[in-house]
Amino acid sequence: MTDLYTRHQAVLPDWLAVYYKDPIEITHGEGRYVWDSKGNKYLDFFGGILTTMTAHALPEVTKAISEQAGRIIHSSTLYLNRPMVELAERVAQLSGIPDARVFFTTSGTEANDTALLLATAHRRSNQILAMRNSYHGRSFSAVGITGNKGWSPTSLSPLQTLYVHGGVRTRGPYADLDDASFIAACVEDLKDLLGHVRPPAALIAEPVQGVGGFTAPPDGLYAAFREVLDEHGVLWISDEVQTGWGRTGEHFWGWQAHAASGPPDMLTFAKGIGNGMSIGGVVARAEIMNSLDSNSISTFGGSPVTMAAGLANLTYLLEHDLQGNARRVGGLLIERLRAVAAQFGGVREVRGRGLMIGIELVEPGTDRANPEAAAAVLEAAREEGLLIGKGGGHDTSVLRIAPPLSLTVAEAEEGASILERALRRAQ
Predict the structure, then answer these.
(1) Which of 137, 240, 342, 390 is the least buried, fewest Cβ under 10 Å from its Cβ?
(2) CA-to-CA distance for 247 and 124, rounded, in angstroms?
(3) How many C-beta atoms lie closer than 10 Å to residue 62's C-beta?
(4) What 3-state class would DSSP assign to 380?
(5) What gap in Å lies between CA 202 and CA 130, rounded to an integer?
(6) pLDDT digit string, tens, across residues 254-273
(7) How far is CA 177 from the centre of its chain?
(8) β pairing state of 41-44 and 33-36
(9) What is the reported pTM?
(10) Any bridge partners for residue 130, and if so which?
């Protein structure tokens, strides 16, 4: 046990989880690699929980941060802020939401909290629809709508939450249906639910569930839900904290896989846009965003330094077509990992889109989650020089793979080879 970990345990909460039996201190990074305090080099396949979106120490971003910090670091939203206005203009245009307004926060949790405030104020209802197996953050309101008991430490909430089927395609009561029948069954479940309650304020849903193990419904589910929600005046909030900015490869936003009924009323974002800087936010139609009838500001949301970083990062992402790279390299990586998984009876499924990939582990020959195996693979991969994440629903048994979107084919092959060895070691 390192001295730093001993000090960590002495002053920080017991529930502040760290990876690995012997936790590592990451001291610096470059591109898709990071180094720890002992000089060990790792290929980073988790990117600070999907946050280092473009690359570690990206010169364009570090330059923008340094230059802005040399001018002014902070002013708050009480004053005009050019970088904030410029980033808001770009995000609004990219969002696909008509007459969009943008409010910046410091995290995805705060972004979802804000979206819930807007929805409940606009609709005059504290009832929220959420998906089973979901995760939306760690604030009091966000844990109250999180459908994953491992990340929801209290049942107390300012909101009344009703959970809907559909976020997990290959488990649950509708798993054996084909995609069209799956969607139809989930829609009927939603209709039945809405027939028993007063109209809720909103449905909040991750297009691909992140902490839940990178699970997703068939394309079109939320478009079908939207038709039903519109009949009742219920808003749709797309939680794009992990799926936004082209990570899924096929689309810039996760909601675009469900676009037949139009864009969401609100979308929330965070993580990747700051490439490690603390940026989150909400995009909403003006009538919703402007529905609050009291004053509000943000002390740190929209900070000049974080906005400068976000602008530089977004520019790099678009100019280098990192969405296209996620589609191409991610597609190759998924197929390579499926070939690896075929060798191991304990791998139930390799799923995902772009550079958002989950490997679900089970006890061989069964459908029972195997969190012990997931923990063992995580350790073995780190020892071999690869950092990955983990997640999942009833048990944490899914390996989560989400490298920076600039990942090369050679690096994808390197990571897949390490994972193959780690899976073999953990058998």
Answers:
(1) 342
(2) 34
(3) 15
(4) helix
(5) 8
(6) 999 999 999 999 999 999 99
(7) 27
(8) antiparallel
(9) 0.96
(10) 163, 204
